[in-house]
Design goal:
Protein name: Glutathione S-transferase
Keywords: Transferase
Low-confidence stretches: none
Bound molecules: glutathione
Number of domains: 2
Radius of gyration: 18 Å
Family: Belongs to the GST superfamily.
Strand content: 5-15%
Number of helices: 9
GO molecular function, one term: transferase activity
Pfam families: GST_C, GST_N
CATH architecture of the largest domain: Up-down Bundle
Length: 223
């Protein structure tokens, strides 16, 4: 939960983004994890338009999210999520086998699914007659469909950080629209129906809406 007074955990995002990505900026993964685990955190932002040296010392690619936890600095949403997950068994099971599975699925969401879905989407923006990455994405989504036909959650028989990351990668509307995947659709709907996701999503949308207001006021003031 956001807590300006007691949080040593700070999640960083941009001070503003255009309307399209709102609700999808990857700081949502970290907000969501904190909400699931009841961790106190505060939000801080770096300029979207002017990515300065201080930002680059936290995130070498000038991206978000990153976090600070006391003196500790972590970047990459996967690394940040794993750090947060270690704080609470609701996100990271304590038994060795389930921990290993949870970590495997978190990394696979990023390195086997998002690693394909993002380039596929990017190539598609140019509307080529055929997207050469379509077969690659289809193979990944077909495999996942078979997984979700057999279980409600990726590991441990319950929600973990693995589901958070996988659902966040899969919930993008253009990924959902890619094909007919009923078991995956049901999985994504199940994971995103969690109150913690809804809070994190609403908070992010509100954060950027406030940023719009602040921008408009600065413009009025001639800033
Ligand atoms: N692999 C990075 C990707 C981060 C990323 O793409 N962040 C987007 C916002 S969701 C961003 O900063 N975009 C601006 C840019 O790439 O310049 C992670 O998972 O943290």
């Amino acid at each position: 939960m956001p807590d300006e007074d007691n949080a040593r955990l700070t999640l960083w995002t941009f001070d503003w983004v255009p309307e399209g990505p709102r609700g999808f900026v990857r700081d949502l993964r970290l907000r969501w994890a904190c909400e699931e685990a009841g961790l106190h955190y505060q939000m801080r932002s770096v300029p979207f338009e002017d990515r300065g040296p201080d930002h680059l010392t936290h995130q070498p690619f000038g991206q978000v999210p990153f976090l600070t936890d006391g003196d500790l600095r972590i970047f990459e949403s996967g690394a940040c999520l794993l750090h947060l997950a270690e704080k609470d068994a609701s996100l990271m099971p304590r038994d060795t086998g389930s921990r290993a599975e949870t970590m495997s699925w978190v990394v696979s969401a990023l390195n086997s699914v998002e690693m394909v879905s993002v380039p596929w989407w990017f190539v598609g923006l140019a509307s080529p007659p055929e997207n050469p990455l379509e077969g690659w994405l289809r193979a990944r989504l077909d495999s996942l469909e078979r997984v979700f036909e057999g279980r409600d959650w990726l590991t441990a028989g319950r929600f973990t950080a693995a589901d958070l990351m996988m659902a966040d990668v899969l919930r993008l509307p253009w990924v959902r629209a890619f094909g007919d995947y009923p078991a995956t659709d049901a999985y994504v709907a199940r994971v995103c129906d969690r109150p913690a996701f809804k809070t994190a999503h609403a908070d992010q949308v509100a954060f950027f809406a406030t940023a719009d207001g602040n921008r408009a006021r600065r413009k009025e003031d001639g800033g």
